[in-house]
Amino acid sequence: MTGVLPVALGDATKVIQALLSAGKEYVCVMKVHANMPEERIRQVLGEFQGNIYQKPPIRASVKRRVRVRKIFFLDVLEVDGRDVLFKVGCEAGTYIRKLIHDVGEALGCGAHMHELRRTRAGPFIENENLVTLHDVVYFFSVWQETGDEESLRKFILPMEKALELLPKIYIRDSAVDAVCHGAHLTAPGVVSLETGIKVGEKVAIFTLKGEAVSLAEAAASTEDILKMTHGVVAKNVRVLMLRGTYPKLWRSSR
Amino acid sequence: MQRILSPWQIKRELLTKSEDKTDPNFGHKPEERTIQEHIRFGVINLDKPPGPSSHEVTAWAKRILNVEHAGHGGTLEA
Fold first, then answer.
1. Among the four residues A11, A31, A39, B46, which has the most C-beta atoms within 10 Å?
2. pTM of the full predicted structure?
């Protein structure tokens, strides 16, 4: 199967956590095992939008128990006899092969996945900076042979890109190194923040220059953080910035 | 069943809690990193070819780009 596979390099591997839990989008070809009226196929596929129950396949890397997965949308693009082309947006951890199998059961005749291409993984999409392994080899050799960084800078994206869909909290310089050392972010360190922050959900902590500091879990909502004068706002999940990038302006308790 | 708003369709607004400036002597904008730092803190949007596993493809990218670590975001079956 082909398509969008974000690959994080070096110290950026720490942002992967944000991508694993991000929504995905696929285009796929389903083969239905009997002739069915097009209307029936469209109707059954439509019923697979919203919350669905899914048992991971035998060859899966997770425990095989029924899980609920969100299907954001499922759009039929074309029906040609027994071949059905559709686009699906879904929560992380949805097995499309299994989804199609289950659609086949619902149709009563069975169906299987013929082809699959991922068109989105979180903020990474098919028609924006997508490169093949051949491109990677070529651009890298151009840089090594000529020293021209331009093409390399174009296809290697800063790790901040991977955090694009998360709500962000921007913090003062004086709070940066403490967070880099693992401290939870407290209210006085916050300069600005985005709407939609919910308790227990992931947030990205950024400097005022737009550099990622850490991946964290919100301890308060956007509305509450705006009102808070003290207390923990977000708990570190993964520190992304190297310690010492900003000066140490905090005192240890000793 | 209904269509749900996809996470990538959510629009966010930036709200100010307090004012502060950043010191230009520390850190720098992501796009101002040196090329070595840019690679070390970089992500590529790779088009996975059919056949090899996500893991294999990632290992190749790691070798080609001569980096110590590499990891992929979400397995795409072979």
1. B46
2. 0.94
